[in-house]
Design a protein that fits this description.
- By secondary structure, the protein is α/β, with parallel strands linked by helices.
- The chain is 63% helix and 11% strand.
- The chain has a domain at 2-345: Up-down Bundle (ABC transporter transmembrane region fold), CATH 1.20.1560.10.
- It is built from 22 helices and ten strands.
- The strands form two sheets. Strands 6-7-8-3-9-10 form a six-stranded mixed beta sheet. A four-stranded antiparallel beta sheet has the order 2-1-4-5, with no helix packed on it.
- α4 runs parallel beside α13 (304-345), α17 crosses α19 and α19 (509-523) packs parallel to α20 (539-553).
- 31% of the residues are buried.
C-alpha cells in the first residue's frame, strides 16, 4: 500500500484536473438523484397509488418533505392540465436530466484522462531516467527482459489500477455516501439492516484481496521471465538454429508460459469472484429490506412511497459499491506492479556525484592509478578482480594492457569513466581524484571503442553524431573519413541517411566498428580507450579498422586493451596483468627480452596464427 501512496503523489502536478473531475462527478450524482426523486411521485400520482397533496407542505431537508413537495406540485399540475400534460413535462425533464447526467459523467472522465496518462508518463520517464543513471553493475544481476516487463506490463497494470482507483476514491464513494445519506434520512433501521448483510462479503473480499496481491506479484515476475526468454531467443536465434535447438527452445518456453498461465488463471478466478459475491449479498440485503420495510409499512411506521424510494435508491447504490470492490481487487494488482517498479526507482545509485564536485573540461597532465583495488560480491563472498594497481599514464602516451582472459583488463579501463567505483585506492586525473569530479565532465574527456560495437536502429548520421548537439553533416563526413568509413557509407542507397537496422544488423562487423570509431573521432576526446576493438574482425576488416584506429589515436592519450599483440608493438608502455595484478611492464622489446608472461603470450599467439 505504501508503494501505491507513492504512485498517487504523481497526481500533484494535475491538481486542477482532479478538482474538475470531483466537481463534475458531484454534478453527475446530483442529476442521477434528481431522476430518482422525479420518478416515485410521478408514478404515485399518475397511477393513483396515493392521492395528490392539496395543501402545500413546509419544505425541509429530509426525504419525506422532498417527496411531499413533489407530490404536491405534480398533483397540482395534474389537476389543472391533466395527466397527459404531466407525462410530457416529466418525460422532458427526464430527457434533460439524463442528458446533463451523462454530460457531467463524460466531463468527469474527460478531466480524468490527463491525470491518468500524465501520471503514467511521468512514472515511465522516472524509471527510464533511473535505468540510465544506475551503474553497470546493477545490470549484471538483472534480466533484460524482466526490466523491459517492468517498463511495459507493470506500468500498464499500474495505469489501469490507478484509473479504477481514481474512480474509486472520487466518483464511487461520492455516489455511495450520497445515497447512504438519503437512505439514512428515510430509515436508519432499514439501512443498518441492509449493511449488516454485506459484512460477510466484505470480510471474504478482504481475504481474497490479500491472496490476489501475492499471486499478482508472482504473475508479474513470471511475465518478466516470459519476456526475458523471448528476448534471449530472438538475440540468440542463430545459435538456436545452428544447434537444431528449436524444439528445445520451444519446450523451454512452453513450460515457462504454462506456469504464467496457471498463475493468471488463479488471479482471474479470484478477481471475478468480487462482482457475483457482492451482487448476491446485495440481493439478500434487498429482500431483507423489502421484508422488514413491508412490516414497517403495515404497521404504519413508514409510507409505501418511501419504502419504494428506499428500494430504488438502495438498488442504485449497488453498482458503485460493486465498482468500489472491483477497484479494490485492481488495487491489489496495482500494488504488486508498483512494488516491482519502485524496486528500480529505489535501487541504490552506487556511482554518486559529490554535491560540491569539481568541474573539469580539459586534460592537461596525466592519469594515475594509485594503490587501486576492486572487488565485488558473489554468493555472499568477496571476489577480488584488481589488486594494488599503480600506474601513471602521461598525456599523449599510448599504454597497452595485455594478459590472459579474466585477468581484470576491462575492469581496469571501466573504472576510469566511473562505470564502476574502485573499492580500494583511487584514480586521479591531473592529480584530482575522479570521485571529486563531475561525472559528465570525466566522460566528456574520454572516448571508447569496444569489442562489442553498440549501434542503434537509426541512420548512420545519427549513430555517428549520437549524444552530440549542433553537429553538421560536414563534421560527420570528416569523422567518417578519418575512421576509414566514408567510402562504404557513400556507396549505400541513402548514404549517411541509411538506416542500419537493429544493432547495425545491415552492416558487416568491420563496417559497424568503423562507424563506432567515427563516433569517437567526432566526439574528439583527449583520452581514448580501445577495448579489444579488432579482436572479432576478419583479416581484411582488421586492416581497415586498424588504420582507422591509428588515425584516431594521433595526438591523444590512449589506453589499448589488445587481443592481437602485434598491434601494440609501438606502444609507449605495455602493462601485463594476470589475476588482477601487474606482473610485467615495459616496451615490447624489453618484455620479449625478459622472457616472462608477455613473451609466452607472443609465442602462443604466433603458434595459433
Amino acid at each position: 500500500m505504501k508503494d501505491l501512496l507513492r504512485i498517487f503523489k504523481y497526481i500533484k502536478p494535475y491538481g486542477k484536473y482532479a478538482i474538475l473531475n470531483v466537481l463534475f462527478n458531484i454534478l453527475f450524482i446530483l442529476f442521477s438523484f434528481l431522476n430518482l426523486t422525479l420518478l416515485i411521485p410521478t408514478v404515485n400520482i399518475i397511477f393513483g397509488i396515493i392521492k395528490p397533496v392539496t395543501i402545500r407542505p413546509d419544505f425541509s431537508l429530509n426525504s419525506q418533505s422532498i417527496l411531499d413537495n413533489l407530490n404536491y406540485f405534480i398533483g397540482h399540475l395534474t389537476t389543472i392540465h391533466g395527466t397527459f400534460y404531466v407525462l410530457i413535462i416529466v418525460a422532458l425533464l427526464f430527457i434533460v436530466f439524463s442528458f446533463l447526467n451523462n454530460l457531467f459523467k463524460y466531463l468527469g472522465m474527460y478531466f480524468l484522462a490527463p491525470i491518468r496518462n500524465g501520471m503514467v508518463r511521468d512514472l515511465r520517464n522516472d524509471i527510464y531516467n533511473k535505468l540510465l543513471i544506475l551503474p553497470i553493475s546493477f545490470y549484471s544481476d538483472q534480466k533484460k527482459g524482466d526490466l523491459m516487463s517492468r517498463m511495459t506490463s507493470d506500468i500498464n497494470e499500474i495505469e489501469w489500477s490507478v484509473v479504477s482507483t481514481l474512480q474509486m476514491i472520487i466518483k464511487d464513494p461520492l455516489n455511495v455516501i450520497f445515497f447512504m445519506i438519503v437512505l439514512v434520512s428515510i430509515s436508519p433501521q432499514l439501512l443498518a439492516l441492509s449493511l449488516l448483510t454485506l459484512l460477510p462479503a466484505g470480510f471474504l473480499i478482504g481475504k481474497i484481496g490479500k491472496s490476489l496481491k501475492r499471486n499478482s506479484e508472482k504473475g508479474q515476475r513470471q511475465l518478466g521471465v516470459v519476456v526475458s526468454t523471448t528476448e534471449e531467443s530472438i538475440t540468440g536465434l542463430r545459435i538456436i538454429k545452428a544447434f537444431n535447438a528449436i524444439d528445445y527452445a520451444h519446450d523451454k518456453f512452453k513450460k515457462i508460459n504454462h506456469v504464467y498461465t496457471k498463475i493468471m488463471i488463479k488471479i482471474y478466478r479470484r478477481k471475478d469472484l468480487a462482482a457475483p459475491l457482492t451482487e448476491t449479498m446485495a440481493i439478500i440485503g434487498l429482500l431483507i429490506v423489502i421484508w422488514f420495510g413491508g412490516n414497517l409499512v403495515l404497521n404504519h411506521k413508514l409510507t409505501a412511497d418511501l419504502l419504494l424510494f428506499f428500494v430504488v435508491v438502495f438498488g442504485r447504490m449497488i453498482p458503485p459499491a460493486q465498482s468500489f470492490i472491483t477497484s479494490f481487487y485492481n488495487l491489489q494488482r496495482g500494488a504488486a506492479a508498483a512494488s516491482r517498479v519502485f524496486e528500480i526507482i529505489d535501487a541504490e545509485e552506487k556511482i554518486e556525484e559529490k554535491p560540491n564536485a569539481v568541474s573539469k573540461k580539459t586534460f592537461l597532465h596525466s592519469i594515475e592509478y594509485r594503490n587501486l583495488g576492486f572487488q565485488y560480491n558473489l554468493d555472499n563472498s568477496r571476489v577480488k578482480i584488481l589488486d594494488d594497481i599503480n600506474l601513471t599514464i602521461e598525456k599523449g602516451k599510448m599504454i597497452a594492457v595485455v594478459g590472459p582472459s579474466g585477468g581484470g583488463k576491462s575492469t581496469l579501463v571501466d573504472l576510469l569513466p566511473r562505470f564502476y567505483d574502485s573499492t580500494e585506492g583511487e584514480i586521479l586525473i591531473d592529480r584530482i581524484p575522479i570521485k571529486d569530479l563531475v561525472i559528465s565532465d570525466i566522460r566528456d574527456l574520454i572516448g571508447i571503442v569496444s569489442q562489442e560495437t553498440v549501434l542503434f536502429n537509426d541512420s548512420i548520421m545519427n549513430n555517428i553524431a549520437f549524444g552530440m548537439k549542433n553537429i553538421h553533416e560536414a563534421d560527420v563526413i570528416a569523422a567518417a573519413k578519418i575512421a576509414n568509413a566514408h567510402e562504404f557509407i557513400s556507396e549505400m542507397e541513402n548514404g549517411y541517411h541509411t538506416n542500419i537496422g537493429d544493432r547495425g544488423a545491415n552492416l558487416s562487423g568491420g563496417q559497424r566498428q568503423r562507424i563506432s570509431i567515427a563516433r569517437a573521432v567526432l566526439k574528439n576526446p583527449p583520452i581514448m580507450i580501445l577495448d579489444e576493438a579488432t579482436s572479432a574482425l576478419d583479416t581484411e576488416s582488421e586492416r581497415y579498422v586498424q588504420q582507422a584506429l591509428t588515425n584516431l589515436m594521433k595526438n591523444r592519450t590512449s589506453i589499448v586493451i589488445a587481443h592481437r599483440l602485434s598491434t601494440i608493438k609501438n606502444a609507449d608502455e605495455i602493462i601485463v596483468i594476470d589475476n588482477g595484478k601487474i606482473v610485467e611492464r615495459g616496451n615490447h622489446q624489453s618484455l620479449i627480452d625478459s622472457n616472462g608472461l608477455y613473451n609466452s603470450l607472443i609465442k602462443l599467439q604466433s603458434f595459433t596464427e
